[in-house]
């Protein structure tokens, strides 16, 4: 008997629920609108958007042109002065009201995220839950974090599609709590529907938030370089990040640019293979489409037989399939390792990187296969890819220096500690790294030589929540660091120096 789409996540039903909760997001004909000048308007030039789950068309992105985006920025800037004068207790009350209302729609938000960006139910739920509970921590602690600091004005947000809630919405609500007005661009690859729902709730609560859709070519100048923008928060690829950093080098405005890097996991003098297996499994959350995914394993050569046995036994048990399918209507949603990558184009680029690696001399050690029983018969599977792994990746391979942002691992074998450190530093800076060793003192000492902002010892490191700081070294981050008190400081003015990775110096917090 073939599977069915679970009635609890059927998209037309979710869309009907959204229209009942936030009807203002939609035009009379059902088209999605942009939020600017304090109200939902401007359907822009609609661009059809399809789900990576099965190719279903979910709606159309309301793409704005440059002139309309400029209107949005100028109106958002006008809100900044009035909002900055609002008493902190009143700002807290409004943000708390927003969180309380968002909690009522966690299920709906998480299920929309499933269709938009292909997350499993568990990961979609976690994304919105982490956003709400993370902002709650700031609401509860803002007096001590803010002190006498003053807001910057208008903060512009451009973020990638992979964490629309726990990265983008979270940042926006903290920026508003600190007294700033905010404009955010919806990621064009996915997330605009769930973000429209949550921003509509925020606007109803009296928060000065603006949400616009459009291509980078039309909107980047307005959202990055316009004089009305006082601060830019960017999460995305290194190419775009470098261009933005160059554009801002002559501007005197605050910025936080989170970019990609090759996050590496080094293994030396190690024997806890069961513990590593648990980490390998967890590391495949969302098909490694995370800025903190570990995609390069640097392994002491003599340990390769144990490593490859552990790797095979772990990865072959991962289930990859359509996250909306069940056997019968009353079943729970499936427990999958991950679903699709973000779209067909990304899947094809992963194929290109893999083929290039093989052509330049890499050796494949694992090629997973998709299980057709985890899909609907005849459904579009173009965005799905099973895990793959390579060893002996040559330096002339593009993948050697690049984060694949998908389920491809590379393994590099080394004979000396100096080689291990060199291979772990291949991308000139990373957000996270890890070292596994039975000799913890050695690992702690060697970790200081790895150019990653956060280092795990016999464990993975993540972005972190609440008081935990976050940033990157080298080319993986430019500008102010965030997380905990640093996020508040990044979007406010005061007499304390801003910590971050700047052109002239890198100022690190005492504890990471």
TrEMBL record:
It holds the Pfam family Aldedh. The keyword Ribonucleoprotein does not apply. Residues 47-486 form the Aldehyde dehydrogenase domain. InterPro entries: Ald_DH/histidinol_DH (IPR016161), Ald_DH_C (IPR016163), Ald_DH_N (IPR016162), Aldehyde_DH_dom (IPR015590). Transmembrane segments: none annotated. The keyword rRNA-binding does not apply. Keywords: Oxidoreductase. Gene3D superfamilies: Aldehyde Dehydrogenase, Chain A, domain 1, Aldehyde Dehydrogenase, Chain A, domain 2. Coiled coil: none annotated. This is Aldehyde dehydrogenase family protein. It comes from Hymenobacter yonginensis.
